[in-house]
Design a protein that fits this description.
GIY-YIG endonuclease, three-stranded antiparallel beta sheet, alpha+beta, 41% helix, 93 residues
């Protein structure tokens, strides 16, 4: 898979985690197994609710930095633009 930016959630409208990775499937699996970030583990953030592929790691990192600066409401609107039910997109990988 290409580099990707992703958003995980603890539940609908719950805690959010924005990340970047070169291997989305492996990274989400790590979060689900509790070996992702300490923040995600502490708040049980392991549901993949949004992701976007990028052609290069550089562009993915740039997008991650942009999203991390966004207001929470903007992140929620982004998630709901493609995943209004906040389904776990893990199966799509």
């Amino acid at each position: 898979m290409k580099p990707a930016v992703y958003i995980l959630a603890s539940r609908k409208n719950g805690a959010l985690y924005v990340g970047v990775t070169a291997e989305l499937k492996r990274r989400v699996w790590e979060h689900k197994e509790g070996i992702g970030s300490a923040f995600a583990r502490k708040y049980s953030i392991h549901t993949l609710v949004y992701f976007e592929a990028h052609p290069t790691m550089e562009s993915a990192i740039s997008r991650e930095k942009q999203l991390k600066k966004w207001k929470r409401a903007w992140k929620i609107a982004l998630i709901e633009s493609t995943n209004p039910e906040w389904n776990d997109l893990w199966e799509e990988l």
